[in-house]
């Protein structure tokens, strides 16, 4: 069915086909997020992402956090409120636990807007949704303790590759999936090579593992999209570095986490090209 065909209903009698087309158009062109799905996502998904970020935002080699740092009260899905709510406060002592108030919820809202704007086909869109679900907490952890945990980046990569593979099966055209796998592999190898050659001055291996999924997502849409995403990530990283240097908030030797720029570069490239 053509999504942009002319309306066929008689005046005053809305045709159901018309309404379906209108919905499809609104999803394709994205005038704004669907409020219901945005609300549901924030209520249902945000506590999970808060929990993932809170658990893993600990220094490398340390056991995952299972409770409040101040009073030790357990935090988990059986009693999500209020620790996993938007305020992120311990239910027993009131200390802040996990990411700052509202940050996860706003990020999830941004993710829903992104999904609406990128729009169908459903196959790659489900891969993008999966990737966001793992990458948002991973990036929050990267900002907090400067590491990208395998427990978040590897499921992000595995699910993204599988969901893109299913999308390719549905379309019966393996080309985009093969390109996605090649792009993910090449990008991860480039990042890993920088670690081997430059040590701490290169990218971390966590960045390389995140690149497995970033490369696949962008590569699905084409090599130029991958190139644009990486250019945007590096440009944003350079801008922020210069800004921090100018504000004397960082020194030349300061090592910024790169995960947030990979997330932003990927998001911006998809918004500009899909
Ligand atoms: Zn507490």
Q: Can you walk through the features of this model?
A:
- This protein has 274 residues and is mainly α.
- The chain has one domain.
- The chain is built from nine helices and no strands.
- Helix 3 (103-118) packs antiparallel against helix 4 (122-145), helix 6 packs antiparallel against helix 7 and helix 7 runs parallel beside helix 9 (259-273).
- The two termini are 20 Å apart.
- Bound molecules: zinc ion (ZN).
Q: Which tags fit this structure?
A:
Prepilin_peptidase/N-MTase; 274 residues; mainly alpha; globular; 9 helices; binds zinc ion; disordered N terminus
Write the layout of secondary structure elements.
Layout: H1 16-29, H2 35-56, H3 103-118, H4 122-145, H5 150-171, H6 175-198, H7 205-221, H8 223-246, H9 259-273
The protein binds zinc ion (ZN).
Zinc ion binds near residues 70, 71, 73, 92 and 93.
Biggest β-sheet, characterized? none
Overall pLDDT score: 88
What's the gyration radius in Å?
21 Å
The total of helices stands at: 9
Query: pLDDT under 50 segments (min length 5)?
Result: 1-32
Total individual domains: 1
Strand portion? under 5%
What is the string of SSEs from the N terminus onward?
Answer: HHHHHHHHH
- Distinct small-molecule ligands in the complex: zinc ion
Number of strands: 0
**In terms of structural class, how would the helical and strand content be classed?**
mainly alpha
């Amino acid at each position: 069915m053509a999504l942009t065909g002319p309306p066929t209903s008689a005046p005053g009698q809305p045709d159901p086909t018309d309404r379906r087309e209108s919905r499809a158009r609104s999803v394709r062109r994205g005038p704004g997020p669907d409020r219901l799905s945005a609300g549901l996502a924030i209520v249902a998904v945000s506590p999970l992402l808060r929990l993932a970020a809170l658990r893993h935002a600990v220094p490398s080699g340390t056991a995952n956090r299972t409770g409040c740092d101040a009073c030790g009260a357990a935090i988990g899905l059986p009693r999500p409120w209020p620790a996993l709510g938007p305020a992120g406060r311990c239910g027993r002592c009131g200390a802040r636990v996990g990411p700052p108030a509202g940050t996860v919820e706003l990020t999830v809202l941004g993710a829903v807007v992104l999904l609406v704007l990128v729009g169908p086909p459903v196959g790659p869109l489900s891969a993008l949704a999966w990737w966001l679900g793992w990458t948002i907490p991973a990036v929050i952890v990267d900002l907090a303790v400067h590491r990208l945990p395998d427990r978040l980046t590897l499921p992000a990569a595995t699910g993204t590759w599988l969901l893109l593979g299913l999308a390719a099966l549905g379309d019966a055209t393996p080309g985009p999936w093969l390109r996605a796998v090649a792009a993910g592999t090449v990008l991860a190898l480039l990042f890993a090579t920088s670690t081997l050659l430059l040590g701490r001055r290169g990218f971390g291996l966590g960045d390389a593992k995140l690149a497995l999924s970033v490369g696949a997502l962008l590569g699905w849409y084409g090599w130029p999209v991958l190139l644009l995403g990486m250019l945007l990530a590096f440009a944003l990283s350079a801008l922020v570095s210069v800004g921090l240097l100018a504000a004397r908030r960082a020194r030349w030797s300061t090592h910024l986490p790169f995960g947030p720029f990979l997330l932003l570069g990927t998001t911006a490239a998809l918004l500009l090209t899909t």
